[in-house]
C-alpha cells in the first residue's frame, strides 16, 4: 500500500499535476450544474421532468417486485385506534350525494352492475386497525371495516378483470380519481370500507363507501366511490397529474 | 525538488466529491418533504426553544408547497447517495484505508487533546497521521450516520414491505424522527467541516482535489511525532524566556527539535498538523 507515502517531485511536475486535477475538478462541477439544469429543461410528464419520472418508474419496478400477500401491514388492537380521525381532504365530496347511491361496477364496456350498500354489507365483513399513512408525513392508527376487495371480486365474478393490470376508481362527480395496480388492489388488507370506529362512515370520511388500501399512502384511499373499472393501461390519477408518484406504495 | 505526501487516493476523492452535491440534493429535497408535516421542535413542556423550521426560513428558501417535487428528487438521488456510499465502504475495507479512519485504542483519549488544541486551550499537539484522533472518530461516525440515513429512510419509504426494519427502528414515526435527526447532524457536521477546512488552509484543501499534500520543504518540521508530548514541554520550559515574543519562542522550539538528528524517517510523514 503506497498511500501516505512521501514522494519527491519536481516543482514543475507538481504544478502540472495540480493543474490537471483542478481542471478535472472544475469540469466536474460544470458537468454537475449542466446535468441539474438539463434535467429541469426536459419535457415534463405530469408535472415532473421526464428523466426523473423514468427513475421513479424504476423505483416502482424494484419495490413492487417485493410486494406480495405475505407482506401485511402491521395491525393494532382496537383500543389503540384514534377516536377523532383526521380529515385531510374533501376533493370529490363537495357535490351533493345522490340519495339513491349505488356502486357502479364496470366489468367491461356494456357490462355494468349497480350494487347497493346493503348488498355490499351482506358480504363477509372484515375490520382492520392499522397506521394510516399520509403522503404529507403524518400517520394515525385508525379502525376501519368493510369487505375485502378480493372477496368482493369473487362474489361479483371479476376473475377476468382481476387478471388485468389496474383498477380505476372515481368519485360520483369524477373530481377525484385514482389508479391502482392489481397486486395492491387484491392485497388481503384492501377493503371496500363502510365503517369507521364501528359506525357508518361520516360524509367527510367517505360515506357511503370508500377504499381503504393500507399498502398505499392516503392519497390512494379514495372516498365516496362512484365507479370501479379495470384497465391494462394506468387509469388517470388525481395526484399523479399533480407531480406525485403513480405507485405511491408503502 | 519538492516533497509531497500521497494523502488522498483518487477513489476517495471521487467518493467525497460525488457525495457532496448528492447529499446536498438529499437534504434540500428532504426539507421540501418535511415541510408538509413539520412537527418537530426542541423545547420542554409547552415552551418551544427552536421550531423546525421557522416560517421565515421556509419563505427565504421558497420551500412551501413543493412536497411532490421534493419526493421525486429524493427518490431519484437516493440511489446515487446509497450506491456511492456503499462502494466507498467496500473500498475502505478492501484497500485497507479503513486503518486511517477507524479510531484505534488511543483515539478516544487523544481526541480530547485535539479538541483542546483546536480551541487553543492546550499547547499539546495531537498526533497526526492522515487524520487526527478527532477526525477519525468523526469520520467514522459520519459513515454510520450515512448508513443510518439509508436504513431509516428505507423504513419510512417502504414501511410495509420492509416492516421488519421499521419495527427494528422503533416504528414508523420514530424512524421519521431518526431520519430527521440524522439530517440535522449531517448539517452540523457539514458546518464544522467547512470551518475546519477553512482554518486548515489551502494546502489541506487542495490535497482533497489533487491527492498530494505538499510538505513545506524549507521550513523545519515543527513537531515530529517521535518527540513525545511531555518531552517537548520540558524543552519548551528550558528554552522559553519570559520576555521573548511568542513568535520567537516558536523559533526556539523549532530549532531545538530540528537539531535532533535521530528523527525516524518513517515518521516524517507525520508532520505539520493538517486539520481537514
Oligomeric composition of the shown chains = heterodimer
Question: Into which percentage range does the β-strand content of chain A fall?
Answer: 25-35%
Count the beta strands of chain B: 4
Helix content of chain B: 55-70%
| Helicity level of chain A | 25-40%
What is the percentage of strand-forming residues of chain B?
5-15%
Which secondary structure elements does this structure contain, and how are they paired or packed?
The complex is a heterodimer of chains A (250) and B (276).
Chain A: E1 6-9, H1 11-41, E2 44-45, E3 48-49, H2 50-65, E4 103-108, E5 111-115, H3 117-121, E6 126-133, E7 139-148, H4 149-155, E8 166-170, E9 177-181, H5 182-185, E10 191-196, E11 199-200, E12 210-212, E13 227-231
Parallel strand pairs in A: 4-13
Antiparallel strand pairs in A: 2-3, 4-5, 6-7, 7-10, 8-9, 8-13, 10-11, 10-12
Chain B: E1 2-6, H1 10-34, E2 41-44, E3 47-51, H2 55-61, H3 67-95, H4 98-101, H5 107-118, H6 133-157, H7 163-168, H8 172-200, H9 202-210, E4 212-215, H10 229-239, H11 246-258
Antiparallel strand pairs in B: 1-4, 2-3
Helix pairs in contact in B: 1-3, 3-6, 5-6, 6-8, 10-11
Describe this structure in words.
The complex is a heterodimer of chains A (250) and B (276). By secondary structure, chain A is α+β, with helices and mostly antiparallel strands. Chain A is built from five helices and 13 strands. Chain A has a five-stranded mixed beta sheet. In chain A, strands 6, 7, 10, 11 and 12 form a five-stranded antiparallel beta sheet that branches. The radius of gyration of chain A is 25 Å and the shape is elongated. The longest helix of chain B has 29 residues. With 276 residues, chain B is mostly helical. In chain B, α1 packs antiparallel against α3, α5 packs across α6 and α6 runs antiparallel to α8. Chain B has eleven helices and four strands, in the order βαββααααααααβαα. In chain B, the strands form two sheets. In chain B, strands 1-4 form a two-stranded antiparallel ribbon. Chain B has a two-stranded antiparallel sheet with strand order 2-3. Chain B is 62% helix and 7% strand. The interface between A and B is large, with 50 and 49 residues.
Amino acid at each position: 500500500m503506497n498511500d501516505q507515502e512521501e514522494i519527491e517531485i519536481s516543482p514543475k511536475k507538481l504544478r502540472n499535476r495540480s493543474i490537471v486535477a483542478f481542471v478535472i475538478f472544475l469540469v466536474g462541477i460544470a458537468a454537475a450544474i449542466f446535468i441539474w439544469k438539463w434535467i429541469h429543461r426536459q419535457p415534463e410528464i405530469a408535472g415532473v421532468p421526464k428523466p426523473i419520472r423514468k427513475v421513479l418508474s424504476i423505483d416502482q419496478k424494484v419495490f413492487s417486485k417485493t410486494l406480495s400477500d405475505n407482506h401485511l401491514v402491521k395491525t393494532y388492537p382496537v383500543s389503540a385506534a384514534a377516536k377523532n380521525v383526521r380529515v385531510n381532504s374533501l376533493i370529490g365530496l363537495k357535490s351533493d350525494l345522490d340519495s339513491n347511491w349505488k356502486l357502479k361496477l364496470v366489468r367491461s364496456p356494456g357490462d355494468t352492475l349497480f350494487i347497493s350498500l346493503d348488498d355490499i354489507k351482506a358480504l363477509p365483513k372484515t375490520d382492520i386497525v392499522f397506521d394510516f399513512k399520509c403522503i404529507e408525513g403524518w400517520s394515525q392508527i385508525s379502525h376501519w371495516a368493510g369487505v375485502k376487495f378480493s372477496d368482493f371480486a369473487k362474489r361479483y365474478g371479476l376473475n377476468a378483470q382481476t387478471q388485468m393490470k389496474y383498477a380505476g376508481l372515481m368519485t360520483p362527480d369524477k373530481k377525484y380519481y385514482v389508479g391502482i395496480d392489481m397486486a395492491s388492489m387484491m392485497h388481503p388488507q384492501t377493503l371496500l370500507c363502510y365503517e369507521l370506529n364501528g359506525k357508518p362512515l361520516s360524509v367527510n370520511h367517505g360515506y357511503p363507501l370508500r377504499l381503504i388500501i393500507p399498502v398505499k399512502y392516503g392519497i390512494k384511499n379514495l372516498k365516496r366511490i362512484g365507479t370501479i373499472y379495470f384497465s391494462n393501461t394506468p387509469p388517470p390519477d388525481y395526484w399523479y397529474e399533480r407531480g406525485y408518484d403513480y405507485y405511491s406504495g408503502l | 525538488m519538492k516533497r509531497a505526501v500521497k494523502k488522498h487516493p483518487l477513489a476517495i476523492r471521487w467518493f467525497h466529491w460525488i457525495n457532496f452535491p448528492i447529499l446536498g440534493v438529499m437534504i434540500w429535497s428532504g426539507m421540501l418533504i418535511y415541510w408538509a408535516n413539520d412537527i418537530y421542535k426542541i423545547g420542554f413542556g409547552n415552551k418551544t426553544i427552536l421550531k423546525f423550521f421557522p416560517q421565515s426560513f421556509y419563505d427565504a428558501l421558497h420551500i412551501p408547497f413543493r412536497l411532490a417535487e421534493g419526493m421525486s428528487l429524493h427518490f431519484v438521488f437516493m440511489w446515487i447517495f446509497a450506491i456511492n456510499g456503499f462502494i466507498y465502504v467496500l473500498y475502505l475495507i478492501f484497500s485497507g484505508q479503513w486503518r486511517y479512519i477507524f479510531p484505534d485504542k488511543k483515539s478516544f483519549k487523544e481526541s480530547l487533546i485535539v479538541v483542546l488544541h483546536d480551541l487553543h486551550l492546550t499547547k499539546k499537539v495531537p498526533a497526526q497521521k492522515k487524520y487526527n484522533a478527532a477526525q477519525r472518530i468523526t469520520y467514522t461516525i459520519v459513515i454510520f450516520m450515512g448508513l443510518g440515513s439509508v436504513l431509516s429512510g428505507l423504513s419510512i419509504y417502504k414501511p410495509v414491505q420492509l416492516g421488519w426494519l421499521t419495527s427494528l427502528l422503533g416504528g414508523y414515526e420514530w424512524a421519521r424522527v431518526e431520519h430527521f435527526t440524522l439530517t440535522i447532524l449531517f448539517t452540523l457536521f457539514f458546518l464544522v467541516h467547512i470551518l475546519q477546512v477553512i482554518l486548515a488552509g489551502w494546502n489541506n484543501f487542495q490535497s482533497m482535489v489533487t491527492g498530494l499534500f505538499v510538505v513545506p520543504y524549507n521550513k523545519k518540521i515543527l513537531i515530529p511525532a517521535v518527540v513525545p508530548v511531555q518531552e517537548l514541554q520540558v524543552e519548551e520550559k528550558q528554552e522559553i524566556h519570559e520576555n521573548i515574543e511568542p513568535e520567537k519562542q516558536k523559533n526556539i522550539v523549532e530549532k531545538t527539535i530540528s537539531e535532533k538528528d535521530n528523527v525516524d524517517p518513517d515518521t516524517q510523514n507525520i508532520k505539520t498538523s493538517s486539520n481537514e
